[in-house]
Specification:
With about 210 residues, the chain is mainly alpha-helical. It is about 70% helix and about 5% strand. The chain is built from ten helices and two strands; from the N terminus they run βαααααααααβα. The model has no long low-confidence stretch (mean pLDDT about 90).
Length: about 210
């Protein structure tokens, strides 16, 4: 008989509902299609591999137009609206979190967070705004007869450079997720360990 004491079962608590996870996954899928097709359109080495460029353009356009749809559909969910409320509120603890991040202070007590930390709130606001700008400039480029050529030229410039910025920011977002397996588990299954929640989000009222 083994004398090793068994570890107590890990207590798990709900973090994201099915509707919230659906919005995140569908938005991530559409964003991934946009980024991938953009890479095949603008990177010469990848563009050379595409035999049907017009098809890639159409897939890119359709994915871009559909990008806001999951969020709009998610507004029917009370839990999703509540999470948007959490993301939209900045408190004194968020400013403290940001100051610690700027100082590269990684102590847990220096980075208090509620359900979402300040970094996640800034990312959500930035990516939402960037998506709207990309949609607007993309429509100007798609429906060329609706706007003057000067507008289309400016829209193309903004669209291309913002797309590059989004790619960099998304890479950082994915990197952060890869570094936190429990956060990924929460988005995948909807639940996280109580220990993780108390450590990473001590101000979260569960």
């Amino acid at each position: 008989m083994s004398l090793r004491a068994e570890a107590p079962p890990m207590t798990r608590i709900p973090r994201f509902t099915r509707a919230v996870r659906w919005v995140h996954r569908t938005t991530a899928l559409l964003m991934g299609v946009c980024v991938l097709t953009a890479a095949f359109l603008y990177v010469p080495e990848l563009a050379a591999l595409v035999g049907r460029r017009e098809l890639v353009v159409r897939v890119h356009e359709i994915a871009g137009v559909l990008l806001p749809v999951p969020v709009l559909a998610g507004l029917a969910s009370r839990a999703f609206r509540a999470d948007l409320g959490h993301l939209n509120r900045f408190g004194p603890h968020d400013r403290r979190w940001l100051r610690a991040a700027l100082r590269r202070d990684k102590r847990r007590e220096s980075r208090p967070a509620a359900k979402f930390n300040a970094g996640q709130k800034i990312y959500a606001a930035w990516i939402a705004g960037a998506t709207l700008v990309m949609l607007g400039t993309g429509l100007m480029m798609w429906f060329t007869h609706l706007t003057p050529i000067m507008w289309r030229t400016s829209a193309t410039f903004v669209h291309d450079w913002l797309a590059l910025t989004i790619g960099v920011v998304l890479a950082g977002h994915i990197g952060m997720a890869l570094g936190d397996p429990e956060a990924r588990h929460g988005m995948r299954t909807g639940s996280v360990s109580r220990e993780w929640a108390e450590r990473e989000h001590p101000l979260w009222r569960r």
